[in-house]
Specification:
Mean pLDDT: 93
Order of helices and strands: EEHEEHEHEEEHHEHHHEEHEEH
Distance between the termini: 40 Å
Structural class: alpha/beta
Low-confidence stretches: none
Helix content: 25-40%
Shape: globular
Radius of gyration: 18 Å
Length: 250
């Protein structure tokens, strides 16, 4: 990319804030953000716990080891989302969480390769991940290979109604590996959301954040679903979301 991805703008927010908001939509807080020892992060909410790798340059597997270790103090499993997946939809992550069962991990196979950074892992795998890093491994996919993860194919996801409706192309697995990919994703239409109640304005609008929806509607709105974390202007919106007056959503 030529610059740090975490702070890249995304429709009034940042890539890091959107990824954290996606995780918060599907999991209990705090959301753990893992970064390099000297990495400067954009502003993040109080319900985000920032954890830094012990050493720089050890690759994504080390980040998994760090995050799973911290999450293991409070949960048996953790969902993972890379910072450069702003088109990811919560229905896909929810389906992966629901598929975990007794498996050590659930890793989707999409775009002709495993997607270990948009997956679900037992937190006890932190020890295996750390051991692999100590042996010189850097690939995040190595953890799935060694633990016997359940691999989920695209057709298994597309039978889920919300995924078929809101992410039929499985853009959830599109990563922004260079500036051109980032520019193309940023230029794509923002998520289409609906407006409930007696609010003035369009019944449908395109907004990637609550702040944009509020500006378009000239009204204080929140997503209709129950939020595990406080809603602010940078709270991400996703295709299919419904907005209601703020008081109704509290």
């Amino acid at each position: 990319m030529g610059r740090d991805k975490a702070g890249l703008p995304w429709h009034g927010s940042t890539l890091a804030r959107r990824a954290a908001g996606l995780i918060a939509r599907c999991c209990e807080p705090p959301v753990i953000v893992v970064c390099a020892p000297d990495q400067v992060l954009p502003s993040l909410p109080a319900w985000v716990q920032v954890v830094r790798d012990a050493e720089p340059g050890l690759g994504p597997l080390a980040g998994l080891a760090t995050g799973l270790s911290v999450a293991g103090t409070r949960a048996e499993a953790a969902a993972v989302c890379a910072v450069d997946a702003p088109l990811a939809h919560p229905s896909v992550l929810a389906a992966l969480i629901g598929a975990l069962g007794a498996s050590p991990a659930v890793v989707p196979h999409a775009a002709e390769r495993p997607q270990p950074l948009f997956a679900v892992y037992r937190t006890e795998l932190a020890f295996l991940a750390a051991a692999l890093v100590a042996d010189g491994e850097r690939r995040a996919s190595a953890l799935a290979e060694r633990c016997g993860a359940r691999m989920i194919e695209p057709f298994e996801l597309l039978v889920v109604d919300d995924i078929a409706a809101f992410d039929p192309g499985l853009a959830s697995f599109a990563s922004l590996d260079d500036a051109d990919a980032y520019d193309r994703a940023l230029a794509a239409p923002q998520p289409l959301v609906t407006v409930a109640g007696e609010l003035a304005g369009p019944r449908e609008l395109r907004a990637a954040t609550v702040g944009r929806a509020r500006r378009l509607l000239l009204a204080d709105v929140v997503p209709r679903l129950a939020a595990a974390v406080p809603v602010d202007d940078e709270t991400p919106l996703f295709a299919g979301d419904a907005l209601v007056p703020a008081e109704a959503g509290r």
